[in-house]
Amino acid sequence: MPLNLSLSRDGYERLPMYAPVTSPRHRRSPSPSHPVHDRPNLASHPSARNHEPHPHTSRFLLDRRTLFRVLKVVLPLMLFTVLVGFWFYEPHVEFAFYSRTWTQRQILPVPKLSGCFDAQRVKQTTYDLADGLHGPRRTNIQAGMAMRLGSDCYDFAGTVQSMPRNFSSYVSADARTQYHTYWRNDLAAFGPRQEWMLKSFFATQHLPESRLILWSNGDLGPNDILSHYLRRYPDSFALRVVDIPSLAQGTPLQGSPYLVQKDKKAWVDGDLIRLLLLWTYGGVWVDMDSLLTRDLEPLLEHEFVTQWDCYDKIYQPLNGALMRFKKHSPYLCEAFHIMATSEAPRPGSTDWGSLLYLKLWRALVAGDIPPFKVLPYCFSDGRSCRLDTRLPDPFSSDDTRQNKMGIFAGSMDQNGKLDKALSHVFGVHLHNQWDKAYPKDGWVERLLLRRYDDRLR
Question: Does residue 149 fall inside a structural domain?
């Protein structure tokens, strides 16, 4: 018999110790002598909450299951769509962000010429103004097209041919075409890796009419490599220390505080030095991180800089890794004027390189002066283009995935398509990757380095 509590007068109800078997699970059978009360809300009791699912939890689990089912369908569909898109279309995407303030201050204004092309002013120098601006030329080094398809750029380089040379009398060292390069002695010692640039010069250029001058910011010290070439090529090789204030005498930069600019990458001072050397001596500038592949002679009737890459970047279209200007060229005079009247170059920037050449070009055409020429990118920097048309990576073996892509894939042996392209262009720019080694039996070693050694034996 159930035990009951008789406290109904105080508002309590007698409850059974257990529910009758015939009664519902959550409800007591009504008693005829007592009113029926609703059962207390057990969900509010802690023990009850532990056993009954929370509605938010159920909804969360349901949402997760639904999301998972949707993703199982959507993700494969998206992947399939992307793959089909890549199969039928070529994506061309490039993002670059430029400060509007910077472009409005540094790019959009066109500098005014300072009068360096005035006939009376040019007469005070050795520069031939009529020939420099309007003289006849045998070669055409500007294609007028971007040449991004296949081997177009390399084939165009092959149309720039050298003239047969006749035997000539001895040419003194100072009267030869002067080739300038620069190595900062405080950055690294001159070693075997840097020697390859020297070898490429002596193996490809016409030495009876050429001289390479290796400039430095200080004494390169006792060096067996350099001593060897000084002994072997006394009239075709020289070492000199740069004196920037002396080189700047008579230019708009004379006495400028900008002359002491220097950075850890040797970009700012390197960009300044190449212009001052070409102004003082004339000739050709070649970056030390380059390998020459053929005689530069057919280019020398022009004054030029180089295209930065095949993408025609709107704010960075020009490069000075390979450039040629004559002694006291008014082009350089105007460049010095722009440098002297502009903001100081930012450390580690190309403000005195690519940006300066762009400003100068725009100033020239605005002043009705025929501008200097621009070599197509592949003439000296065939790596700076699309994956399908660029030169293979010089620092990766031939069988790597990236070197199996593009127009040279499977044709990197002697007399192959790559070998033909290298015989057409004038150099390979390596972009300061001094810490990387050339792979053993890679295309650089087979098609360039070994041939340098063979020619110099």
Answer: no
Number of domains in the chain: 1
DSSP 391-403: PPPTTS-TTSGGG
DSSP line for 222-245: S-HHHHHHHHH-TTTEEEEE--HH
Is the model's pTM score more than 0.90? no
Strand partners, 35: none
- Cβ–Cβ contacts within 10 Å for residue 430, how many? 23
Q: Does 128 reside within a domain?
A: yes
Largest CA distance in the chain: 139
> Worst-scoring range by mean pLDDT, 89-93, 310-314, 317-321, 415-419?
89-93
DSSP 251: S
DSSP 385: S
pLDDT greater than 80 at residue 130? yes
What is the rounded average pLDDT of the residues 134-147?
Answer: 94
The pLDDT value given to residue 92: 62
Residue 25 scores a pLDDT above 70: no
434 within 8 A of 394, measured Cβ to Cβ: no
What CATH number has the domain bearing residue 182? 3.90.550
Pick the closest to residue 380 from 154, 192, 144, 209 (CA basis).
154
